[in-house]
Amino acid sequence: MLTLLNTLLPNPINFKTNLVMSLYLALSLPFSALADEASIEVSGQGSVTVVPDHFSLTLTITERGRVPSKLKALIDKKSNAVILAAKGVGVKNESITSARVSLRVIKEKPSIQVQGVELRKPRQSVYVDGKTINQSQQQDYEKPLFELSRQITVSFAEINNYDQFLGQVIKINVSHISSLTMSVKERDEYYQQALLAAISHAKEKAQRMAKQAGASIDKLLHVKEQSRNHYQPMYAQALMSDASSTEHSSHIGNQVITARVSVKFSLNN
After folding, report:
1. Which site among 3, 64, 120, 152 is 20 to 30 Å from 134 CA-CA?
2. What mean pLDDT is reported for the chain?
3. For residue 121, what are the β-bridge partners?
């Protein structure tokens, strides 16, 4: 009797397995149909050309000596002259940074080679390399050598102000003047414009490719940004020239802000 029932009824294990497989196939069919949907994926690039409107220049004032307090007095005097020159061409206080000060000890080899030392008066003078130096001078030789420097950064809204400032600051005898840095204040806004241009470029490319294949684009399925506010300067490095009878006007050129995207469209056959 039991054998007859087992023959007539389906195996419970086989029945459960078949049910799971049937549900899996039923659920996966719609996704498979979407995966097989015709689509096209292309890249696009857009660019916006702008003129730099923000300029920055960093100067370094450096002095060396044995007494740090005297070095600071010299540094402060030159720094005030630089700041005064910047204000003279219309630069405001918030566009001037002069708080970066550094002090270091210079380890130098003695410039005088001692060949013989002869005491003439105890603790009064010594005989060094054919020269007589008193006790105070000897102590100066033993003091460490310090180097004090200050960096001043000045920002300009117009390139003409930079030219005027440069003509004045080179007379102050600063130690170093860095290359002029040029940028665009509203760069993010221009980058957004470049992104829209990149999407339009990708759409036009997809339309041409689909048309060539005998289809047309339908819905936008995916957009991915492939750039990060990238810009490319298109000007030569500004060169500092000494003030002369023939003054030079700096040329700033343009900057190209570029955006790249990857776009995917569905197709109508």
Report:
1. 64
2. 76
3. 125
